[in-house]
Design goal:
alpha+beta; Heat Shock Protein 90; 5-stranded mixed beta sheet; two-stranded antiparallel ribbon; elongated
């Protein structure tokens, strides 16, 4: 809060006070008062005025600076009123009470909104689980009677299952602290589970799956990690280059504190203009426009899950050459998980 701007807001009061002073001065001069009297009255008039103006400024400055500083230091700025002392002046009390009522009303609305969102997410998660039961039965039926169902039917069922998984984990990522469970996980077991899930589509797409050096144990949530790896492998299958012999290679790079799970393919790659935006919500990019079936949500959810679990993820790619995804996971159970 600047003193000059404060004075500018008080320009009417200041102008009126000076005008009154000059009227008094004219009266004193009209009655031929002594210069000593005029000087004394001038001092008596202006010293209280300057003192009160300055005092009010510093009082308001202290309140405003405290308010702004507290707002900047709070994650939820609407709680700032709880950090302030109730003012003593009548005018400031009225403003404080009005702010309190506004804040109370907003908190009630936020609470109602959070309850509605929570109820909706629970319903969505329950609905997905209900839908997945007949879908699992249908998947098993198609698998056991491949001669009666076309390859396209299997692909469409797989798409439905993948989209349901995306929705489920998107909902869960918004309530991560209620769903994840950090444990020591055998990396080979998780990658094997994902490979088996995608076995038919890897074989159908004539992709050579290469798995090396995945014996490590890491600290993560096994279900979430499998979903993350599955999304990346699904992308590798979706964006394979039909003009070359395709492969997906999964291996690790290990150091003292972390393990980086690398998922590499020799597919169509990602253009330089898109690489920095692949984790953005609903971003499909050049490949998405070519493919036509991309939602732009897969990698967004993957990045969200990695952030929640305290893992890091990055992508390196060259157009028409390769794509490498690095998921870096801690080997130590004492690491920060974002809640």
């Amino acid at each position: 809060m600047k003193f000059t701007k404060y004075l500018k807001d008080k320009i009417i009061e200041i102008t009126f006070s000076i005008f009154i002073y000059f009227l008094i001065l004219l009266l004193l001069l009209a009655f031929k008062s002594k210069i000593e009297l005029i000087i004394s009255l001038t001092i008596i008039y202006f010293i209280p005025f300057i003192f009160i103006t300055t005092k009010n400024f510093y009082k308001k400055q202290q309140f405003i600076n405290t308010l702004l500083n507290n707002i900047s230091n709070l994650d939820k700025a609407y709680l700032v009123l709880e950090t302030l002392k109730k003012p003593s002046s009548y005018e400031d009390k009225l403003i404080y009470d009005a702010m309190y009522e506004i804040n109370k009303s907003m908190n009630e609305n936020i609470k109602n909104y959070e309850e509605q969102v929570y109820t909706f997410k629970n319903y969505i998660e329950m609905w997905i689980h209900e839908v997945k039961i007949p879908l699992s039965s249908l998947t098993l039926l198609v698998h056991n009677h491949k001669d009666k169902f076309s390859k396209n039917s299997q692909r469409q069922i797989k798409k439905i299952d993948d989209y349901l998984e995306q929705i489920l984990y998107y909902v869960r990522s918004e309530n991560a602290n209620k769903d994840y469970l950090i444990n020591k996980v055998n990396l080979k077991k998780s990658i094997t589970a994902v490979a088996l899930k995608n076995k038919d589509f890897i074989l159908e797409s004539n992709i050579n799956l290469i798995v090396e050096n995945i014996q490590q144990e890491i600290y993560t949530d096994s279900k979430w990690l499998e979903f993350i790896i599955n999304q990346i492998i699904s992308n590798s299958i979706k964006y394979k280059d039909n003009n070359k012999e395709s492969f997906i290679k999964i291996y690790t790079i290990e150091n003292k504190e972390t393990v980086s799970i690398v998922i590499e393919d020799n597919g169509i790659g990602i253009s330089k203009s898109d690489i920095r935006r692949v984790f953005e919500k609903s971003f499909t990019g050049e490949n998405g426009r070519i493919n036509g079936s991309s939602t732009g949500m897969g990698l967004f959810i993957v990045k969200n899950l990695c952030d929640k679990l305290g893992h890091s993820i990055k992508i390196d790619s060259e157009k028409n050459q390769y794509t490498k995804v690095y998921i870096t996971v801690s080997k130590n159970k004492y690491y920060e998980v974002v809640k």
